[in-house]
């Protein structure tokens, strides 16, 4: 009889495990690139600790489209594909019809973590009601911004909130490579370098001189001076200019930059990732692309001014943050900062 009992126990345990692995999790993250990357530790920990069969992120596809196949995230859902604004309705007025698209949308998920809405808000109550219309689901509402007295990293804040609300025991993967480029990414990156006649570079450094927030950008001359000095040492530099930089810099400024190093514009996020997979170093401000480079394991030098790197600094195995608290951070170049950047890159 004991042997039979052992077999039944094993089958029951196996069945329970399969049931857990069939469950999926969803994170609602409406933020930009950096916000989405700093959500990855929470996604990984939810997936592992809850033994989920998969975890998806709902957000802006231009920011999260790179995640499946390169991270712990299995799938993405477009934040524009559903009428999520309905969940902000007054709870008393909120109504769901038969076969409502909102019910179908959340029917696949046993666990939902949301950065949309606030605790005890109409959104949270309507989301809980919707998610539980078709099955039993757990909904956890998280704040994106920590309180002023919080002493840890932002990812710790996300995880701490989740732990406090669920009782799950988690630890953050600090210093891990969160995003792994594919073989196709590296191939595409090399092809791009070949087109720029940089395929034979012994050392290549990508420089992104901008950021979404102007106050986060140190003076452009710092990056130009560094690129010029790198060139004199036989190190190729590439300026990466996104929409914010193209809108901010004049044509003459971009021409001057191009005389120092190659300027790349209008790259998709996938193209940027491919380029970073083939680079030896990255320099940038507090920006989404800086978070991307760090998360990929690229040697990253992040220049921080008004924001606190202890909370918002990029995560990765090879990151150095250089801080400049001067009131002239964005207005004037800094010879000291330039020397720090060069010393960090050339050692």
Distance between the termini: 69 Å
Proportion of strand residues: 15-25%
At the first level of CATH, the class of the largest domain is Alpha Beta
Helix fraction by DSSP (H/I, runs of at least 4): 40-55%
Strand order of the largest sheet: 8-7-6-9-10-11
Instruction: Let me know the number of strands.
Output: 11
| Series of H and E elements | HEHHEHEHEHEHHEHEHHEHEHEHEH
User: Could you list the spans in which at least 5 consecutive residues all have pLDDT below 50?
Assistant: 14-20
Class by alpha and beta content: alpha/beta
Number of domains: 2
Rg is: 23 Å
CATH architecture descriptor of the largest domain: 3-Layer(aba) Sandwich
**Global mean pLDDT:** 90
Largest sheet: 6 strands, parallel
Question: Can you count the helices?
Answer: 15
CATH topology (fold) name of the largest domain: Rossmann fold
What spatial form do the alpha-carbon principal axes imply? elongated
Short description:
With 347 residues, the chain is an alpha/beta fold.
Task: Write a concise keyword list for the protein shown above.
40% helix, Rossmann fold, 347 residues, elongated, 11 strands, alpha/beta, 6-stranded parallel β-sheet
């Amino acid at each position: 009889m004991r042997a039979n009992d052992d077999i039944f126990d094993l089958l029951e345990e196996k069945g329970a495990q399969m049931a857990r692995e069939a469950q999926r999790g969803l994170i609602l993250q409406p933020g930009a690139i950096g916000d989405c990357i700093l959500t990855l530790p929470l996604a990984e920990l939810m997936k592992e600790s809850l033994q989920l069969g998969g975890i998806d992120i709902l957000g802006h596809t231009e920011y999260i489209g790179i995640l499946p196949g390169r991270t712990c995230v299995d799938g993405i859902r477009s934040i524009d594909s559903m009428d999520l604004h309905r969940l902000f309705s007054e709870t008393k007025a909120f109504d769901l019809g038969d076969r409502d698209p909102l019910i179908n949308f959340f029917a696949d998920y046993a666990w939902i973590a949301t950065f949309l809405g606030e605790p005890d808000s109409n959104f949270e109550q309507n989301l809980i009601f919707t998610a539980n219309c078709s099955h039993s689901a757990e909904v956890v509402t998280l704040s994106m911004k920590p309180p002023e007295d919080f002493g840890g990293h932002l990812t710790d804040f996300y995880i701490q909130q989740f732990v406090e609300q669920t009782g799950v025991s988690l630890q953050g993967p600090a210093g891990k490579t969160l995003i792994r480029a594919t073989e196709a990414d590296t191939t595409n990156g090399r092809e791009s370098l070949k087109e720029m006649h940089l395929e034979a570079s012994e050392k290549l450094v990508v420089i992104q001189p901008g950021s979404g927030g102007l106050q986060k950008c140190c003076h452009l001359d710092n990056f130009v001076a560094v690129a010029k000095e790198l060139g004199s040492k036989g190190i190729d530099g590439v300026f990466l200019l996104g929409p914010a930089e193209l809108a901010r810099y004049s044509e003459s400024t971009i021409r001057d930059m191009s005389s120092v190093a190659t300027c790349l514009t209008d790259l998709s996020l996938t193209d940027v990732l491919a380029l970073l997979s083939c680079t030896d170093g990255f320099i940038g401000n507090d920006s989404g692309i800086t978070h991307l480079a760090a998360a990929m394991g690229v040697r990253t030098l992040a220049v921080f001014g008004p924001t606190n790197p202890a909370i918002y600094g990029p995560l990765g195995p090879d990151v150095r943050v250089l801080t400049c608290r001067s009131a002239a951070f964005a207005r004037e170049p800094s010879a000291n900062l330039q020397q720090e950047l060069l010393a960090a890159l050339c050692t």
